[in-house]
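::Encoded backbone::
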Amino acid sequence: MALTAGIVGLPNVGKSTLFNAITNSQVLAENYPFATINPNVGVVEVPDERMDEFVKFYKPKKTIYTTFEFTDIAGLVKGASQGEGLGNQFLGNIRQTDAIVHVVRCFDDDNIEHVEGSVDPVRDIEEINMELCLADLETVENRIGRIAKKAQTKDKDAARELAVLSALKTDLEAGKPVRLSEVEDKDEFIRNYGLLTGKPVIYVANMSDVEIADPESNDYYQKVKAFAAQEGSECIAICAKIEEELSGMDKEEKLEFMADLGIPQSGLDQIIKAAYHLLGLRTFFTVGEPECRAWTFREGMKAPQCAGIIHTDFERGFIRAEIYSYEDFMQYHAESALREHGKIRLEGKEYLMKDGDIVFFRFNV
């Protein structure tokens, strides 16, 4: 289930440095606009403490965490919706993603040029939001032009589409992202036309290594946090430079380094988990001595669909699923003890899978 979050922001806000940390790779990250020309894609493991517990107990030959994909998209600039600064290419790259991780500069540094000449995170957010709104407005207006005549012929579907798109056009003209629009039935059209402002957003406040231990003291962060709260979006404070350093360390070194800095949890772990859950993704597990593995599924999927994630034959010949919860595993551990206490359930085709389910699928083909 390959889902992607695109990392966006103005030039020189720390996107590529963050991407380096996420993928533990070294993409070009220079102190000038358009250092990243082509989108870089990286697949990362989703940190999950539950898998760590399975590994401790089973000591499996193979351990496979679930993964998530990030795309580093080159810096947008004012006029991107009109093609400025390779804008058409960059907007096209965003269109291919499922969610947006919007990196905002929240630190002062005279040695790092800001494309606008000063640090103002809310202005920067609004600038990119406006470019995305303008791009969506063009998409919506083009579609309205195509269906207006058809809607006048009393074609019900066309009339409905015209009504929705006209309402979205009004919001976009006012600079209101589609995701915040109150227009009914908008979700179908967000998908059909790949509307950029319909994608869910996480704001990432990139601050200095001095301030990250106490982000609440950073005035820039407070402004981004307040802006995100108004939208109902999440805001995560990080120091991209520190995260890049952490990405080159083993687990023990990383924990020691974070303790020295007074950071309780890696910012990257927070971003990865937030992006994963933002898209309604959940995890079920198959565990044992040969292999402990995490599997990604969408919230609302039933047991046969989840069986099909492992193999299409599992879904086609689904009989039932033997399931127990992570909480019960932590209490009883051994399968014999779980069975003795009645904690292993038999579930059928209508069972809605839950995050943390540990499952064995029975099938026949």
User: Anything to note?
Assistant: The two ends are 24 Å apart (CA to CA). The first strand starts at residue 4 and ends at 8.
